[in-house]
Amino acid sequence: MFKGITRRWVLSTMLVIFLIISLIVTGLVFAIVHLFNSEVERELNSVSTELLSVFEDYKTDNSSAFTSGAREYVENFHHKENIEVMVINSSGRIVLTSTGFSYDESDSMPDFEDAKKNLEHKAFYHGSISSGETITGLSQVITNRTGSVVGAVRYVVSVDHVNQTIVIYSALVIFSGLLCMFLIALSGSYFIRSIVTPVRELSETASKIAHGDFSTKIEKRNDDEIGDLCDAFTDMAKDLEATEQMKNDFISRVSHELRTPLTAIKGWAETMYLSSKRKLDRKTFDKGMSVIINESTRLTGIVEELLDFSRIQTGRMVLLNEKLDILAELDETIYMLRDRAVSENKHLLYDEPEVVYPAVYGDRNRLKQVFINIIDNALKYTPEDGVVAIEVKYNAETDPDYITIIVTDTGCGISAEDLPKVKEKFYKANQKVNGSGIGLAVADEIVQLHKGTLELESGVGVGTTVTIKLPVMKSDNSTNN
């Protein structure tokens, strides 16, 4: 029970709070005791001041005279009901009391001895007597002009009722302190449970997610930071589930993409091997070699695409930047794909600008890879007699920092639901068309590495437009390879 956050909370917070409350309660109890005792002492002190006027300028050493004067003082004392007055001679013996009863000599009077030593000639005593009663005593020593002690008057008051009051007030303070501790512990326990329980559930959910169970959900109890964390975990689980599904689909697609050229290569290789045992006609040989070469090229492209994707994911893709003519690279790419467009009965339209555009600072092969991927996708999704149009724009006045390449097709298009996701890894909007689904993600990453942008606009049944913007070469680009 007491481990982790709960243990740290108990040790670092509750114990400190309880210690502070205990110190406050202890201080208040001592203050109450001191306050009431001081009040009793103040009252006795006030009463004893009139004694000084009675024995002022006392000259004689005669004990009888002192006793006579003290008797008169005791008889006229106005507080007999609450305070007992004792007359003590110079030897420390009680010779007279206001109650008329004899004083138990076994009861000690340390205040008398302390008063004789005190410069103020008075001293207090707090204790009890043989009867069990708790008292407070004040001894006031009387001296003559020579400083000799001729006797003392002692005031004694019972403080049992005062002690009862002290106990009541102290009990109230202690009860208040315990009540505060209980309420703090109760509220703290509720608060810590509101944190520990969801965190424990989050930990269990994270463990399930780590073992591949992405369907688990966390109940949101409160609309606070913990609740937001629960929502974040639920969203994360959904995203991971979707990513896992896309990854599985991706593996399935890649496996199929790899199997297709491998099957064709193996089939024609076996055909040519078996045919070699007898006379192999030239037509079969040429067709077989053509298939093997084309499928090997396709297989190499898939592997390179996977390797590029891996490099991008791990941050290991390095650009070999140089000054280059982007129109020349685009023109070369279009030339490579024009025969394919003709063979598929599709129209690949491109009019090379007659003006000279600024140079671009980038990786020649990687940018050509982007152009091949975009135009290849456009041809792949465009039906027969469809059109793929390519246009290059540059305006030195409105947008002098970028060259824009626009590739538009009249293909099947992309739905509004799929459009925001087509550049994500593993995502493939159209499952009917061959492809790994990572080519566009790789192209987008390459363009971003060149500090450019790749944007898509599309509509189902209308076609797709891909807009690539690449920064033109600045004077300081050559020094920042």
What does this structure look like?
This protein has helices spanning 4-54, 63-75, 110-117, 160-210, 225-276, 282-314, 326-343, 364-381, 439-449, and strands at residues 84-89, 94-97, 122-128, 134-143, 149-158, 321-324, 347-350, 360-363, 387-395, 399-409, 453-459, 463-471. A hairpin with a 4-residue loop joins β1 and β2. The chain has 481 residues and is an alpha+beta fold. It contains 9 helices and 12 strands. The model has no long low-confidence stretch (mean pLDDT 82). The protein starts with a helix and ends in a 10-residue tail after the last strand. α1 (4-54) runs antiparallel to α4 and α5 (225-276) runs antiparallel to α6 (282-314). A 5-stranded antiparallel sheet has the order 2-1-5-4-3, with helices on both faces. A 5-stranded mixed sheet has the order 7-9-10-12-11. It has a two-stranded antiparallel ribbon with strand order 6-8. The longest helix has 52 residues, at 225-276. The chain has 3 domains: 4-165, Beta-Lactamase; 225-314, Signal transduction histidine kinase, dimerisation/phosphotransfer (DHp) domain (Helix Hairpins), CATH 1.10.287; 321-479, Heat Shock Protein 90 (2-Layer Sandwich), CATH 3.30.565.
